[in-house]
Amino acid sequence: MIWIDGTLVSEGESGVYGERVVQGYRVWDPYRSKFAALATRYRERNLDLTGDQKVLYLGAANGTTVSHVADYVEVVYAVEFAPHPMQDLVMVARRRKNVIPIMADAGRPEQYAPLLEQVDLLYQDVAQPTQVSIAIANLIFLRPGGRLILMLKSRSVDVSRDPKEVAAEAAAALTAAGLVVESIDWLAPYHPDHAALICRKGTEEKD
Questions:
Q1: 106 assigned ligand-binding residue
Q2: CA distances from 105 to 3, 65, 83, 142, 150 (A)
Q3: Where are the domains of the chain?
Q4: Is 105 annotated as a binding residue?
Q5: Quick one: which H or E segment has residue 183?
Q6: Is 50 annotated as a binding residue?
Q7: Is 35 annotated as a binding residue?
Q8: Contacts of 186 (CB under 8 A, 6+ apart)
């Protein structure tokens, strides 16, 4: 990841969403992007994105965060279901040839399975009550040893419950699915009641 005076930036064509430019680099605003908030708050997590990585991004929306991720990695498969943000996402893909926009329901990975390959990072930002089960359903695309970053929107799961309780329950479900939950990182003050669950998929199963 690239930092200039403590500010996260990415190297790529600017003007995607009116972002600031510093010394020729695009400022990756933590208030606009949960990934940037995670990286800014927890630099010790070693969240580096590299040029050989393949990413499956669920809940791509308008492509704000997608555009920054694409500045760093080899390819981003960006899944979005809503028609209006999909239009913006397509425009992002026209300017970044390593962004593959896919209009599909992230809860039905069989819809886009023929378009994908194994990925190094599964990143999910989907505001659905079933967001944990959506992540689990998409683990089929994550290579052994790959990482899941689930941006858990606790209020979307259950607005009446303590967010920490919701996060603990999500972590238990992901562990039961075979993942190692490395950390639960809260994104306040940038995104209150949001937690990033960073998980690692196990290597090949033992005999």
A1: yes
A2: 34, 19, 11, 18, 17
A3: 30-201
A4: yes
A5: strand 179-186
A6: no
A7: no
A8: 194, 195
pLDDT number for residue 207:
39
Radius of gyration of the chain (CA): 16
**Per the annotation, does 88 bind a ligand?**
no
Please report, for residues 91, 132, 139, 149, 178, the alpha-carbon distance to residue 201 in angstroms, rounded to integers and kept in the order given. 33, 15, 8, 11, 7
As a whole number of angstroms, the distance between CA 106 and CA 111 comes to 9
What is the CATH architecture assignment of 30-201? 3-Layer(aba) Sandwich (3.40)
Q: Is residue 125 part of an annotated ligand binding site? A: yes
What's the pLDDT score for residue 206? Answer: 43
Split the chain (207 residues) into runs of 10 and give each run's mean pLDDT.
94 90 95 95 86 96 95 97 93 94 95 95 92 95 96 76 87 95 94 93 65
Q: How far apart are CA 98 and CA 96, in angstroms?
A: 5
Tokens of 22: 């510093």
- Flag whether 141 is marked binding: no
Task: Provide the whole-model pTM.
Answer: 0.93
